[in-house]
Every structure is written in C-alpha cells, then in structure tokens.
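Backbone-to-sequence.
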C-alpha cells in the first residue's frame, strides 16, 4: 500500500509531462492538495501523498516581509514542515478595488527556499469576532458594513452576517487572493486556507438589529431542517432556547461558506474554519464565548450551513488534560477531520500532540512560534526560547521523517493516542496535582492516576508515566507532566508504537484471557519512501519491563504472541 502510493507520487510529475507533451500544453503543475476520506478517517493529500501537518503558527501581525526573518529560524529549529501565517484583508486591499499581493509573493518565495509548506489564514470580516484586520474603508463605514446590535440596542465591534454589502466586499477580496494563488503557485506551496479567524460575536448571542429581527421571524430554512431532522417552524419554535445562537451560527456559516465556495471556484484548496472554543464542561452562555462560531454545540448547524468548509478546527488553549482531550473527542467526527488549528506553545500542551495524531488529526499547529518578541502568556509560553522549541522539535523530528507514512496508516488503520493525564504544577518547591478543570488538587500520588488502559481488541495497552526504566516500581508521573504515546494497529497482533517519557505495555484482553504471552519481536526502525527500515531488535532490558520511552521518542514495530505451555 505504502509502496503503491510512493510509486504514484514518483510517477505523477512524469504523467503530467507526458499529458502535457501529448496535448501540446505546457502544464507541469503539481496535483492540488485534497482531503481524502476512508470510512470516517481522513488524510490531507499533498503532491498525491498523505501529508501530516507538523505546523508552526506565527503570532498575529507577523504578516509582513519585515517580520519573516524572525519567523523562519523558529520554524527551522522546531523542524516544522508547515508555516501557518495570516494574510490580512487590510494589507491586500488597502483601498477598495486595489489589490497588493506582494507579501504573499515574498512569503511563497521564502517558503520554497526553506522547503516549507504554507497554510494561509484569511483575516477579514472576523478576526476573534472583530473586523480589526478589515481595511479602514470597511471598518470605519458602519452604514455600509453594519455591526451586530445587542438586544438592548448597543452596537458591538463585530460585523453582522446579515448584509450582502459586507459579504460581497469580503468575497471579492478573497476571490482575488485565490486567483492570485492559482496564478503563482503551481508548486502548491500553499496547501490549505483558513477562511476568517475565530468567527462569532462576544457580548451577544446574535445580531438583534431590525434587519436581523426580520430574518429571525422567518421560518428556519428547509435545508437546515432536513439536515437536523426537525419539523418546520420559526427559529424559536424549532430550537427553543438555542434559537438565538443557532440562528447566528447558521448565518455566519452561510456567509463563510459563500466566501469559501467562491474562492474554491477559482482555486479549490482545502478550506477550514478555526474555533474560539467554549469550555465543554462549563460552557457559560453564548456571548460569554464567541457565539455563532463552530463551538461543540453547533457543529451540526455549521455542517449544514457550510458544505464548502472541509473542517471545523479547534483552537486549544485549555492547559489541562481533561479539557484538552475532551475537545479532541468532540471535533474528531466521522463528518469532520480533526485538525488542531491552534494550540498553546507552552510545555503542558506539547504532549497533546499524541492525542491529536491518535485521533487521526491532519495536523497540529502550536501558536506563537516565532521570535518577534511577543508572547500570549498565560495562554502560551512566557518567552520564546530553546526550552519552548525543543519538546516540539523532539516530536517533529521523529514524525517529520515518517509524516506521510503515519498519515497513510492513520487513514487506513485504527490508531490511539495518549498523554499524561495528571496536570502538575509547582508550589513552594513541591509538585501538586491539578485535577482537570475541576480545580481540585491533591498531593497524594495514586499510581492509577498515572496509568491509562486501552482495549485494542485482543490486547490491552497500558501506558504509565514517571517510573524508572527498570523494575516494576509504580508510576508516579513526570515532573512536569510531559509523556505521551501513540499506537497504530498494523495487522493481527502487530502495532506501531511511538512514545515519549512513558512506558507502554501490552497484556491479553478478555478474548485471550489466561494465555501465556510475550513480545514475539520488537523492532526499532524508521520509514524510508514508504517502507519500514529495520534498525535493531529491542530485547532484554529494553522489553523486560515494557517498552520504556525515556529521553527521546523511538519508533517501534511490535509483534505480540501467545504460547501454549503443554
Ligand atoms: C486565538 C486566535 O485565533 C489567535 O489569532 C490569537 O489571537 C490567539 N487566540 C491568542 O493569542
């Protein structure tokens, strides 16, 4: 399978040349990036091969040539294969109808030099709910581009989704951007586009302007009713207390979809939206979080409203394990590939890479990965330095060398990801356990807190954290919590395992209960051109106590077996 993909990949430029020669055209463009689905599992295809985004997202305002020299060194040190960076409406259309793509061109040239791919973030009608990145001719003209009004008549700094004038203006600029990419990017350096940034509105569940009220009183559109399986009626009748928020989500979704559709008509790259999340355990009211964005309670509304948006992607700034992993469970759906559009860049977040790719994520993009001397602490790290970069680099190094193979495995096989479940923090020189987002804490260490078990079918995997490599000593957690592991099923009794600061062990599940078992063979190796390259066999101390991943991740192919004693 891997072999076949690679042959296709090697042959595709050749086929392109042959077609060009036979048709007399001079087309040598690489195939377009696409998203491939296999029964609710997904892969991003780049150059016809599965691609794992090992991303680095810049801070905001890094979207000028002058900032780029402070961006690339971090991308390089991190060993990221993809830079995720804004392109702002205000910079491409500073005067209405006059377009300037010089930043995009500079960015693409430099990315090619560095052999890094790009994901562009279209900052326009919405950037964290506001039109900050819209040009002045938009954001200063509230008559032509009206803002959301609250129920008590206040005007918020969030553009209303109910005006064609705003939609047409944004769409026109976005179409120009996509046309420009189509013209300059036959190499497909840009692989994906985020349409808007954290859409929605803070401070109100929806727009309550006269125009919005009129639309709100109309019946719920048929296509939405049939997608969510509801009988017709007004928004209030159909959705009750959720009506205001669902109405806003639907209209923002339709607005964004129309822009994406028009952009794709010019140049059909994969497109997604990112989400300012609500806390899944303690959501609060719409408006306290960004109402109308693709929060977990309205993913179904967005799916109906925005068929040209390939995925709804979380921005994870919950530091604790319980919430961060819950978010991944909510956004990895059969109808929604998981892509971690943003995640904090501080140490605790690094280990969630394992959960993400265990969920089959298309990629992972820590935010603020540049040296522009800015920090979004306490969301992310306080400073940008080697300490922040190295843990990401440790993981990206390993997955960089097998990104395509991993992405293909994840498209076709069952995968599971784990990260150290106890969140620790230091107080008065002592390590404390923070219990999820519940805020509780305890100093006592229960080994079960540092143990995860996963039923894989015939086998159960056990992942433990913070125990010596030798001996059966109970796990007591790493200081700080940093461990993780990912397991992929390769075949019967055969798994690919990559771990970091963790021990992974296997035992028979119910079906094999009572059987004698062992590691038949544990190979350490790597992938080259889609093929597994054997390096050595792990045995003796390396397997007697389980598979200990200590200072750096290792890539292991594990064959388990049972044996008869009589
Ligand atoms: C999420 C947004 O999408 C980012 O652009 C940025 O504003 C971060 N929040 C905070 O640094």
């Amino acid at each position: 399978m891997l072999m076949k993909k690679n042959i296709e990949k090697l042959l595709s430029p050749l086929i392109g040349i042959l077609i060009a020669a036979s048709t007399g055209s001079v087309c040598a463009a690489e195939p377009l990036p696409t998203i491939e689905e296999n029964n609710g599992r997904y892969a991003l295809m780049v150059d016809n091969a599965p691609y794992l985004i090992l991303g680095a997202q810049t801070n905001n305002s890094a979207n000028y040539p002058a900032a780029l020299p402070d961006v690339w060194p971090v991308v390089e040190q991190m060993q990221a294969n993809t830079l995720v960076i804004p392109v702002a409406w205000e910079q491409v259309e500073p005067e209405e109808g006059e377009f300037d793509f010089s930043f995009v061109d500079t960015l693409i040239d430099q990315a090619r030099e560095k052999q890094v791919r790009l994901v562009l973030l279209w900052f326009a009608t919405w950037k964290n709910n506001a039109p900050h990145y819209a040009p002045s001719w938009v954001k200063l003209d509230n008559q032509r581009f009206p803002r959301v009004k609250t129920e008590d008549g206040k005007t918020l700094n969030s553009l209303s989704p109910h005006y064609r004038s705003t939609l047409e203006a944004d769409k026109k600029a976005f179409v120009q951007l996509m046309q420009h990419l189509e013209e300059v990017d036959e190499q497909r350096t840009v692989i994906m586009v985020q349409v808007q940034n954290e859409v929605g509105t803070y401070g109100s569940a929806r727009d309550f302007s006269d125009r919005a009220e009129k639309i709100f009183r109309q019946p719920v559109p048929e296509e939405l009713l049939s997608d969510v399986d509801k009988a017709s009626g007004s928004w209030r009748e159909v959705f009750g207390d959720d009506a205001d928020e669902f109405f806003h989500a639907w209209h923002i979704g339709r607005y964004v979809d129309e822009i994406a559709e028009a952009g794709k008509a010019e140049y059909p790259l994969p497109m997604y939206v990112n989400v300012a999340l609500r806390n899944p355990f303690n959501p609060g009211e719409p408006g306290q979080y960004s109402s109308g964005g693709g929060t977990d309670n309205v993913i179904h509304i967005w799916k109906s409203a925005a068929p040209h948006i390939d995925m709804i992607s979380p921005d994870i700034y919950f530091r604790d394990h319980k919430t961060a992993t819950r978010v991944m469970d909510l956004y990895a759906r059969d109808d929604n590939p998981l892509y971690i559009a943003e995640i904090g860049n501080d140490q605790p977040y690094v280990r969630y890479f394992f959960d993400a790719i265990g969920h089959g994520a298309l990629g992972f993009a820590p935010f603020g990965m540049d040296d522009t001397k800015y920090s979004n602490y306490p969301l992310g790290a306080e400073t940008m330095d080697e300490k922040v970069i190295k843990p990401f680099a440790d993981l990206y190094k390993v997955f960089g060398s097998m990104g395509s193979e991993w992405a293909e495995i994840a498209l076709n096989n069952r995968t599971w990801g784990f990260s150290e479940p106890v969140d620790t923090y230091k107080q008065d020189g002592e390590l404390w356990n923070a219990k999820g987002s519940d805020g509780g804490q305890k100093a006592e260490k229960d080994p079960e807190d540092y143990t995860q078990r996963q039923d894989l079918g015939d086998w159960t995997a056990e992942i433990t954290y913070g125990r010596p490599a030798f001996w059966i000593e109970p796990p007591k957690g790493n200081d700080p919590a940093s461990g993780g592991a990912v397991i992929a099923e390769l075949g019967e009794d055969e798994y690919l395992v990559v771990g970091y600061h963790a021990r992974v062990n296997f035992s028979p599940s119910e079906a094999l209960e009572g059987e004698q078992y062992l590691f038949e063979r544990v190979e350490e190796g790597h992938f080259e051109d889609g093929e597994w390259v054997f390096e050595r066999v792990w045995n003796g101390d390396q397997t007697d106590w389980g598979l200990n991943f200590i200072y750096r991740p290792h890539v292991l192919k594990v064959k388990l077996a049972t044996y008869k004693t009589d």
